[in-house]
Amino acid sequence: MHRPTPPRLAAALSVGLLALSGCGTSSGSEEESDTLRIAGPFEVHSLDPAADGEVFTRLQVVETLVTSDIQGELAPGLATTWSSSSDYKEWEFELVEDVTFHDGTALTPEVVVAALEKAAAATASPLAEVPIEHLTAEDSSVVVELDKPYLTLPAVLTHYSTVILAPGAYEGDRVTSVIGTGPYQVDRIELPASIETVRFDDWRGEAPAIERVTFQAVGRAESRALMAVSDQADIVFGLEPAGRQRVDSSDGVAMESGLQPRTILLKVNAGHPTLKDLRVRRALSLALDREAMAEAVLREKELAATQLLPPSLETWAADVEPLTQDVEAARALLAEAGWEPGADGTLHKDGRPLELKLLTYPDRPELPALATAIQAAMGEIGMKVDVEVSNSSEIPAGQADGSLELALIAKHFALVSDPLVDVAAVFAPEGSDWGVMNWSSPAVQEAIDSLEAGASGADAEQHRATVVRTVQEELPLIPVAWYRMNAAVNDRVEGFVMDPLEANWRLTDLTWAS
Amino acid sequence: MGIVSRRNAALAKVLARRSAQAGGVAMVVSLLCFLIVLRLPGDAAYRIAAGRYGYDLVDQETADSVRAELGLDRPAWQQLGGWLLDVVQLDFGRSLVTSRPVVEEVGYYLLGTLQLAGVALLLAVAIGGSAGVLAARRPGGIVDRLTSTWVASVRAVPPFLLGLLLVVVFSAQLGLLPAVGHGDAASIVLPALTLGIGLSGLVARVTRDSVVEVRQSDYVRFAHTKGLAERWILLRHVVRNAAVVLVPYLGVQAVILIEGVVVVESLFSWQGLGHAMVHAVFWRDVPVLQATALVLALLIVAVNTAVDLAVLWLDPRPRRHEVAA
Prior knowledge:
The complex is a heterodimer. Chain A is α+β, with helices and mostly antiparallel strands. Chain A has helices spanning 7-26, 49-58, 109-121, 153-156, 221-229, 241-248, 278-287, 290-298, 327-336, 366-380, 394-401, 419-426, 442-452, 457-474, and strands at residues 35-40, 66-68, 74-76, 79-84, 90-95, 132-137, 141-146, 170-171, 174-175, 184-190, 194-199, 212-217, 235-237, 253-268, 340-341, 347-349, 352-353, 355-360, 384-389, 406-412, 477-490, 493-494, 511-512.
């Protein structure tokens, strides 16, 4: 007997099929051929420059007074020139003339002052650290008066939290739309994952070749890799090793990469009874097989750190003896320091076992993996390390109450274009949340003070070398690995360059391959 | 008493019971949520600051300013009391991380989740339901056995793997559909298919069993005997009675879908409640977390109410009781 398909099921089925077939037509990439599609891991949760401003500087929607060039050197942004009084307490920033915001209003010194005042009031902004006494709008410039000399002010003004937004971007203190001065203006934003921009016709510079740009936040690295190889994005940031291999073996897309000014390091409580002995810190460093760890966890043994500051920070690349592994030397140093093998294989001194607690956090997935590798390496030399994977806030908390022993952290050394700002913070004699603890060195402090007071040329080089050498010898922070940032770039895009500070994706330099 | 009024009484009973339940659930969920966040390790102000500004810019000082701004140093009962008081006035506050109104934020994610769950459920019923009905035609036959294999294999494959497989085939190889995204119609297909296929196995199983059972029942045999055409038997007796079993089951699955899509949402960059909730926990964004949990809890009550009402409408038995009475 013939049994017809039940009508309801048939209807449901056809809806499903329709949904399937209807979609095939709208996803083609042809219609979007004039749009540059960027995908990256970072979601955007706020329009406030102090919070998520970096994505808008990278997309070149907003601009800062000062920028950095591809070598990381300071370059003009909304300010053409800047100068300071001889005591570095008064700075004048001359503004570019005839700049209009995306809403058609003019960029005036008053607008700049208002925007900078907002940035200075945001605790998270590096500008909040600057001892500003007064901001004044002059005819065509902005004058910053300071309580104390502050030589790195122009570098601080490269930070994305100091971008200049139009007055219309704010409702009260809240940023409600991103109205900047950059070569691209916002067309549509759907927080947290999608931003679309379009060329701003009244931009003062040369019109960029690419007319439209879309940015899509994609959380999973696997998904991003698939987008890169299947031509669903032109530039894909932040691929993991498996994805990189996939891209390498595909046609039409290539990997670009560059060292990031970030170091994974062991923060050491140099006031701890065990760790205040330099020999123990050296033994710790000598026990680490950094190349094997970098190879196993980061899949690239070149990322093994031979010194604290990565070589991409060229001005800070002093000539020092690279940190290497030497287990025998590590054991000898510990023996010299009075640590003797106990019954359980752990070293002892005065009846006390050599035990340390290592704190780390899971926000960067490689940290717990590296922590266990460090634990194993320490076991080799008779040091018992307990790894505790916890909340990142436990590290500043442990610093504050003095209970911290070792912490594995990832520290960025160029949040603003001059690493001096971060270096000075990291080696502050009173200690720093993401820097040294109970360690200070008169030589380092003197060098940093001189640099902050304006040393230049060979003098400056000397001071920087002093910092790098002293830190390499005394190991208040023990470097483990560097970081590499990468992007998969489709062949149809030409002119892509990795910005060492990731401040700007340089979309205006890109062209379509003919 | 008439049939209609009896039905209305049943309806009113269901609605009254469910709304009381909704109130209770909302209360308990809010309290639990608050207590759990309180017990989470780490300094909440620090996590919120990291969520707002990114890790690189956060130190103790930033965390302290966030603490002062949000009043996180108030005693816990004051914070909970304040929140409850606001909720009674239907004011859910602003997200601690994004500073946007919670209603706006959660509404956005809820819409995403409902779209995804709805399409997934539809696909599951379409695929699973037809497979089940086909299998039930000849229990033990080739289609039935194939369906069993299908059920076993889709249950065995985790959604994460299934999603990646679908992306590799439909997106990377065939180039038919976008791999990720949220917004246009095409981007919902792969995540919904991932969830729908995963669910279709059980739907097929339940449909098959209940259709087989209903077919063997006395009333279907009687319908045959009285010479009713096969399609009418299927429509009026088999499908309807089988649906009485299937609908509550689908209700349970819908709830699981709404809550259990975190992995699929993140794989496909789909903006939904699961995604929002994970971030809220991670960043200690208590108002968003509370509102999300509340919405989920109320959603469960709503789905159950819908199931009750649907069954009330579908199930022919109460009418029979009427006759007996």
